[in-house]
Amino acid sequence: MTDFIQRQGPAFLAHLLRRLADELVQGATEWYPTVGVTAPPRTISTLLALDEHGPLGVTELAGLLRQSHPLVIIWIKELTRLSLVKSRDDPSDRRRTLVALTKKGRDELVRIRNALVVMEQASTELLALAGPDSFQVLWALEQNCRKLPFLQRLQEKERQSGDITPQG
């Protein structure tokens, strides 16, 4: 029997990608503590960005990671609760809050970088099983959504088909 979502076809691409992302994140969530990493998987990129760029405002972090401002705030709160980052007022603009790594956060990054070596190996293997260009295909999807957002694609297809009538 085929998977229900697979039978629905490409209209459920977002569902498929979310399911895949959830599988990868759940695996990392269970594995990271076994190698000493306490940060939640979805926050790892935030720690890496702060390490590479130094203290940043939430808006800057959101832009750098291409994630929503509210989501980055949630991540910062979780990382603050774990004492991996701290926030302080920007001395040049009191309305702005800067987020920076703590000593504990920098120590965590050593463990994270070691774990990412294994993460890359497992991810590379999984991508190779999907096909030789699967990673490039995923990036092409993301880049094409930046060129023409999915909302605009939907609106364009709706105009072309003229078949969708609003329900009221």
Describe the SSE topology.
Blueprint (H helix, E strand, L loop, with lengths): L3 H5 L4 H19 L12 H10 L2 E2 H8 L3 H13 L3 E6 L2 E9 L1 H28 L3 H14 L2 H12 L7
Explain how this protein is built:
- This protein is mainly α and 168 residues long.
- It has a single domain, classed as Winged helix-like DNA-binding domain superfamily/Winged helix DNA-binding domain (Arc Repressor Mutant, subunit A, Orthogonal Bundle).
- Helices cover 65% and strands 10% of the residues.
What would the keywords be for this entry?
three-stranded antiparallel sheet; 8 helices; 168 residues; Arc Repressor Mutant, subunit A; mainly alpha; globular
Quick recap:
This protein is mainly alpha-helical. Helix content is 65%, strand content 10%.
